[in-house]
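User: My advisor asked me to double-check a structure prediction for Diphthamide biosynthesis protein 3 before group meeting. I don't want to rely on an old file, so could you generate it fresh from this sequence?
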Amino acid sequence: MSFYEEVEIEDMTYLPATQEYTYPCPCGDVFAISLEELWDGEDVGLCASCTLRIKVVFEEGDLPELEELEEEEEEGEGAKEAGEGAREAGEGAAEAGEGAAEAGEGAAEAVAKLAV
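Assistant: Sure, here is a fresh prediction for Diphthamide biosynthesis protein 3 from the sequence you gave:
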């Protein structure tokens, strides 16, 4: 496997909110690798916008602790909010459908009056 570059983890930017390390890619996007991937022994950072990849040089002792609990709670909250949003959207669609049916009835009455 070929790499664009070997990068020391100290030269990467750590984003605590997403538990992800990033490094600028020459295409304008960034290479990224998650903390979980690093703890699993992965060492390849990928760019989402192009085919380049980097090899991340690190030692496990240099990594911050993996905080799985917070991530799972956030995912659970996001799923709950998405479910509520979908339910509200469904109710809005039902109301829109009722309004369209009423408008259709009104249009039919107007056409009937014109035909007379």
